[in-house]
UniProtKB/TrEMBL annotation:
Signal peptide extent: none
Source taxonomy: Bacteria, Bacillati, Bacillota, Bacilli, Bacillales
Domain of life: Bacteria
Its EC number(s): 5.1.3.3
Organism (species): Pallidibacillus thermolactis
Catalytic activity: alpha-D-glucose = beta-D-glucose
Keywords per UniProt: Carbohydrate metabolism, Isomerase
Protein name per UniProt: Aldose 1-epimerase
Pathway listed: Carbohydrate metabolism; hexose metabolism
Family affiliation: Belongs to the aldose epimerase family.
InterPro entries: Ald1_epimerase_CS, Aldose_1-epimerase, Aldose_1/G6P_1-epimerase, Gal_mutarotase_sf_dom, Galactose_mutarotase-like, GH-type_carb-bd
One Pfam family cited in the UniProt record for this chain: Aldose_epim
Amino acid sequence: MEIRTNDFGSINGQKIYTYTLENNNGMRLTCTNLGCIVTEILAPDRNGMFENIVLGFNNVEDYIRNKTYFGALIGRVAGRIGQGKFELEGKVYQLPKNEGNNHLHGGYQGLHERVWDAEEIKTDSAVGIRFSYVSPDGEEGYPGNVRLQVTYLLNNDNQWIFTCKGYTDQKTLLNITNHSYFNLSGNAKKDILNHELTLKSHRFLELDKQFIPTGKISHVEGSVFDFRNSRKILDGKLSQNEQNILVGNGYDHPFLLDDHFNEEIILRDHETGRKLIVETNQPCVVVYTGNQIGGEYQTAEGVKAKKYLALCLETQGLPDAIHHSHFPPIIIGPEDYYEAKTIYTFTIDD
């Protein structure tokens, strides 16, 4: 197992590097100290062919220029906060409104555009990178100095283990996710409409026209939101359900998970045989099927941006939880310990 470091450019005089983790099976994960971005994951298909299964860019400039959040760490709060404000201990905090009237993914310069410190990790069973960053009080409008530590490990079981730990010196909000876009066809040769997704989830959140949760928790039974027995992503594109139409003919919805660390999320591409198993301690996964992907940019493989080019499986707390008392809280204080953990297992379908 090995780690390779390469120059990736600079931002405002700060050096940006890529770190390539490779296990004994030949699987590789490359990440960077800019926003803890995962730029590439090379995984085998059923014939042993290694191809990239996430969307990324070849240079720092494209990551800054194109607000895609490809592979990035998202925070301090993932998803949207309605009207970009919240109240905490009697004080109202106004955050940047970087998507219409709402706050999205931590603001204009959330954690995805910060330069992190990085150190290598090498053990008998894994290689990895430990990123660290202190988000100062008032950054993007959030209260509290928050110390963050993000670890990416790659082991010989072809697992990427993502852990985020956080500590604060005053009450604040924290809800972190990784925003990797997966396409198991390899090198984005095809879209993801024929990918099959299985979720251990019988409830999802209804969204309003601004993609903010209404507060209503709906049951999936009898709808195209029922992934308990597997379903093609294509079903969401073709659906006449107003919730699918609302988000651009597909999915961009939080699903409440019924189980944890028990193969609760499985994505399959039957053509290549690739299978991704996602397990987490987080209460939900936001399934975003790339309905809004578009623009003049191209991915690292030269594939032009288009709808349904890849999908995200964002394990996290519920979006806009600060405005819904019946959602699991995302408030942490100095006495609390925040830890989000997700394991991605890359394997082959039988």
